[in-house]
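Appendix B. Extra example for self-study. Work through it before the problem class; the solution is given directly after the inputs so you can check yourself.
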Amino acid sequence: MELINYVKDLNTNEELFPAIHRYAVENRVPIIDSDALNVVKQYIAIKGAKNILEIGTAIGYSALHFASAAEGVHVTTIEKDETSHEIARRNIGESAYSGNIKAILADAKEAELGDAEFDFLFIDASKGNNQLFFDKYKEYLADGALIIVDNIFVRGLIADDNVENKNKRKLRDKVRAFNQSMKDSEYTTSFLNVGDGLLVIY
Ligand SMILES: C[S@@+](CC[C@H](N)C(=O)[O-])C[C@H]1O[C@@H](n2cnc3c(N)ncnc32)[C@H](O)[C@@H]1O
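Solution. Structure tokens for the complete assembly:
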């Protein structure tokens, strides 16, 4: 047995939202990798996070999982695509967590959240805007909040020095610059080789 399959088996949990997961797979909606999801949920539980802000709802899959991570977790999640937002609202409304999740239709580059305060930020939208999202939404975080950024490997693009496509090269360079700026910052960082790469910032 290959090590990777051995670990995958040990990490596999019963899917809490099988219909939503199936819909995502069948319709190629990009949702968080299952190993990465386990790690993020564990951080939520260990930290005792109660107010999570998510950038990038898609159809509400990760928001529902986050709400289920521990008792009394509230999630505010922002999505700019109207169709995805509507599907997310329906999925959330039909779940046991409808009172725990607030889905906002807005471009996260411009959204305003008033005096809301969060103890956990999950960034999972347009990868080239990670720095912008980080700078904008850290203003809404309580002291000691935890930030996790998904897809920091950009599906392998990050380590490819020979990218021919100009737009892909630009995206790679933006994500590389963001990752480096976080490493060089005053924050404590962990770059985790799980899923498509998670960056944990404290
Ligand atoms: C990877 S998907 C999110 C997946 C979701 N977090 C999950 O794991 O179930 C990224 C989502 O971010 C949304 N998005 C991209 N740029 C955005 C922006 N500027 N503001 C809000 N949402 C954005 C996309 O429309 C897409 O639905």
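Self-check: The domain at 3-201 is CATH 3.40.50.150 (Rossmann fold). If your reasoning did not lead you there, revisit section 3.
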